[in-house]
Predict the structure of adenosine deaminase.
Amino acid sequence: MSTSDDEFFSDGIDLRDLPKVSLHDHLDGGLRPQTIIDLGREIDLDLPAADADSLADWFVDSCSAGNLPDYLKTFDLSIAVMQSREGLRRVAREFVEDLADDGVVYGEIRWAPEQHLRGGLSLDETVEAVQQGIDEAIDDAARTGHDIRVGQLVTAMRHADRGLEIAELAVRHRDRGVVGFDIAGAEAGFPPSRQRVAFDFLASEYFPVTVHAGEADGLESIRGALFDGRALRLGHGVRLAEDITIERSDDENVYVSLGRLAQWVKDREITLELSPSSNLQTGAIERWGDEIEDHPFDLLYQLGFRVTVNVDNRTMSATSLTRELALLSDAFAYDLGDLEAFQLNAAAASFLPLEEREDLAERISAGFDDVENRAR
């Protein structure tokens, strides 16, 4: 999955310059290949490629088998180099640097502390190491004139049954960089109900939750995320489109009916964290096809769902938010107003206080206006 500079331009506008919000972005899925090589040497890690370009290609090829379990296997490599305080700090710092380079002004980074204990760190120490890297990068970005904010989404692995412990960890750090909670990992067979005690605790603490659902499993997984997990956002949620029936279509219109679940998600403005390239790689959209043009993103957008654009895993998909916006623009002829709508959706869905979400929305609109005016 190669990229080229001319993908990033639309009507004379460099999409990289547009202010963006990143809601679904995995820390262990966004390592620079050279960083994996550098840190891997320190621990004598056996790598499938010796140079950064070849390693980057290996990740994309390995993640394109069309199913989530094979996709997830590649994380063994990235997680292996994130077992020390320095490794976590470096990866987090570079991650935020890459967000800033992509035009992101607010990002939420999700990752699972329980996967980073093999080097002897405690759960709290891993969160602190990641926060140190985030803070360093934010300070560096400010010195170069880029104002970026970043929060952590602490994630529990849905198969490990440590949900309550990780939920308590997230709440302990709610005033030190952590803004929300997530569950991730193999979706089918591990419904949100397995972590119900964790979600009950988080609800009692008024702590926001997003849940991976509707990627590798269908409508029941989404129902569980909403009613067992009390999710305010759906991680991917793309298979919600299975609850939408196309009754008929003509040359100008498509007539659809929504099932009760889809109608509930739409009416409650529950956010869909859609990741087009990743959804292709994992087979999440195989019911509709195997090209970006087949993704139900546009259907959901046109029907009024709160859709957002995300990368999921930058390394595994060789992508960025800029690239995802370019791919969608090419596929569905979106204009600048559409791209702004996606960012405003993300700002409204962020786990910031209301007043700060409103400030973020104003910054995005002003930034879009500025970029458009400069392109005239």
Notes: The longest helix spans residues 354-375. Residues 9-375 form a domain with the TIM Barrel fold (CATH 3.20.20.140). The first strand starts at residue 9 and ends at 10. The chain is about 45% helix and 15% strand.
